[in-house]
């Protein structure tokens, strides 16, 4: 078990810099999820921690050791990949045991460890099967098992659930989180799926273009995003952003040059509610209605911009009609119109 | 009750005709010849299996068959591992790769008799680059006179000609392996041999089966290169089945025995390929389990 520490970490391919000096400390036992769009550098960062990519500048520490020049296998990390990368002509048992073949444990201890890992992951009845006879989720569990038996100081997950269907993904999310709860090993987990980030992480690291935008617990990122990008990236549907101005504490739509950008999450923007003193009121023509069951999403257009709001399940909103949606005070996020940085709430 | 007509057979008819004219009828003609003694177009005598018995008792047939099996075994033993080693040695990307691939493909593009010609001159003890050099180095080498030299030259020629095929097929198989599989093995501290055996081999297995099958069939039918290089000599030392058959059918015009020979030859190739294929594929039942999801 160990903490990870990245100090002014830089990665460049030739002259192209892809990671621009990031700093991050992952304390021992924390589950950190790196999230961001494709090409933001999250996988590269993870692969540098694993030792699969060379570090161009800065330093990576695992525990108290600087590992920049340490071989991947010497770092004692375990990595789980998107396409499982398990050995096809070995049984599940042999696959899990493979990571142990250099270890000095006795044969019996090795077998016990494999059995224990198999039991923990619910693979016991499958131990003598080949990977070809397993489902995607089971294969990924084998990969996790293989990573587990070596007692690594940390786990690295590189989009491990992206190959699975939605239902399995939801189930594996719970399983991995549960595994972390039981093992308490440091985990660095990369995904482009903000739902995975929200549901699993102790802390989310939002990345974009090789920079860390925000590193905070999921609800902090959700409640207090540092900028427009983070605000829109975390939470579905994405936060609505409209050009606005603020006069005497009241936010209204700006025509012409906006002084601020106002952001409001669809779940805070309510159609047909009686809010006495709303923080923001938007009126427009309905373009689409999505009934989800417990609520209905209403898409409407305002000055050529698409806005998503929430209506009660049987609200009777129809396409083409005019709606007014209101957000309560305190739920409107303000961002600087130029830098797009957060300015607090209104 | 449904009307029981056989109209559906009409749908299969084109294929049946095509196969009949392209394969079955020519083959049956040969089978027909093989059970007759033909003096001229009008005069034919049915002789049953006499020609088969004669062929199987013919020491020259048996010798040619044994030589053939030895030759095929030797080139497989050399070309398959060598091809794999070369393919693993190729860079996976970069500017050099296209050039190397073209260079590798060159021997495959040369007509077979030209290959024979090239090696015939190349290996000549008096003026050939290889032959003269080997002799100058103090080895007594003459592929037209010494049986071992002839075999070595012949095998070297085949290896030069065909190893690229194995290399290119294997390389294609290797490039399909996701990088994560190598990285996972790296984190597992797998040795180079383990990377080959546990990561690569299972994923190139089916390509290798094709490579072996192609080389097996093709080497069993080898004709042109030894014909040009050694003419089957010295003596009969490099006379393989196809050469013996040609001398029998075209040289001596023994149509009956040659037809029986052909049928036996065909059956030998079929049998060997079938044995190989079933022994390899028999171990994994059903569809190839390894090509899914980059597993």
Task: Give the helix/strand layout.
The complex is a heterodimer of chains A (346) and B (295).
Chain A: E1 4-13, E2 16-26, E3 31-35, H1 42-50, E4 57-62, E5 65-66, E6 77-80, H2 92-98, H3 107-120, H4 136-148, E7 154-158, H5 166-183, E8 186-191, H6 194-200, E9 203-208, E10 211-216, H7 218-223, H8 228-233, E11 240-247, E12 250-253, E13 260-264, E14 270-271, E15 278-291, E16 296-302, E17 305-311, E18 322-328, E19 333-336, E20 342-345
Parallel strand pairs in A: 3-8, 3-9, 6-7, 7-8
Antiparallel strand pairs in A: 1-2, 1-4, 4-5, 9-10, 11-12, 11-13, 13-19, 14-18, 15-16, 15-18, 16-17, 19-20
Chain B: H1 8-34, E1 36-38, E2 44-46, H2 50-57, H3 59-89, H4 96-109, H5 112-122, H6 129-136, H7 147-175, H8 179-187, H9 192-220, H10 224-229, H11 241-251, H12 255-281
Antiparallel strand pairs in B: 1-2
Helix pairs in contact in B: 1-12, 2-12, 3-7, 3-9, 4-7, 7-9, 9-12, 11-12
Structure description:
The complex is a heterodimer of chains A (346) and B (295). Chain A has 2 domains: 4-232, P-loop containing nucleotide triphosphate hydrolases (Rossmann fold, 3-Layer(aba) Sandwich), CATH 3.40.50; 240-345, OB fold (Dihydrolipoamide Acetyltransferase, E2P) (Beta Barrel). Chain A has 8 helices and 20 strands. Chain A has helices at 42-50, 92-98, 107-120, 136-148, 166-183, 194-200, 218-223, 228-233, and strands at residues 4-13, 16-26, 31-35, 57-62, 65-66, 77-80, 154-158, 186-191, 203-208, 211-216, 240-247, 250-253, 260-264, 270-271, 278-291, 296-302, 305-311, 322-328, 333-336, 342-345. In chain A, strands 6-7-8-3-9-10 form a 6-stranded mixed beta sheet, with helices on both faces. In chain A, a hairpin with a 2-residue loop joins strand 1 and strand 2 (16-26). Chain A is elongated, with a radius of gyration of 24 Å. The two termini of chain A are 43 Å apart. Chain B contains 12 helices and 2 strands; from the N terminus they run H-E-E-H-H-H-H-H-H-H-H-H-H-H. Chain B starts with 7 loop residues before the first helix and ends in a 14-residue tail after the last helix. Chain B is mainly alpha-helical and 295 residues long. Chain B has 2 domains: 7-48, no CATH class; 60-281, MetI-like (MetI-like fold). Residues 285-295 of chain B have low confidence and may be disordered. In chain B, a hairpin with a 5-residue loop joins strand 1 (36-38) and strand 2. At the A-B interface, strand 6 and helix 4 of A face helix 8 and helix 9 of B.
